[in-house]
Automatic annotation (TrEMBL):
GO terms for biological process: protein import into peroxisome matrix. It comes from Rotaria magnacalcarata. It comes from the Eukaryota. PANTHER family: AAA-FAMILY ATPASE (PTHR23077), PEROXISOMAL ATPASE PEX1 (PTHR23077:SF12). Residues 1-67 form the ATPase AAA-type core domain. GO terms for molecular function: ATP binding; ATP hydrolysis activity. GO terms for cellular component: cytosol; peroxisomal membrane. InterPro entries: AAA_ATPase_domain, ATPase_AAA_core, P-loop_NTPase. This is ATPase AAA-type core domain-containing protein.
Amino acid sequence: GPELLNKYVGSSEQNIRDLFNRARSVTPCIILFDEFEALVPRRGRDSAGVTDRVVNQLLTELDGVESLG
């Protein structure tokens, strides 16, 4: 959670991309998010759009995850 979020524009999204890139480089791998709801609250409630960008980046990365089974 807190390791991914950053106050600078674009940094949180880059942290998410980096996390998934690291996971892909050491497959098989499982990523666990503690207190996921704090990381990705409901979109549209953040006036600056930071939450929306973080959620969108996370959804983009999750969409690219492939099943090994």
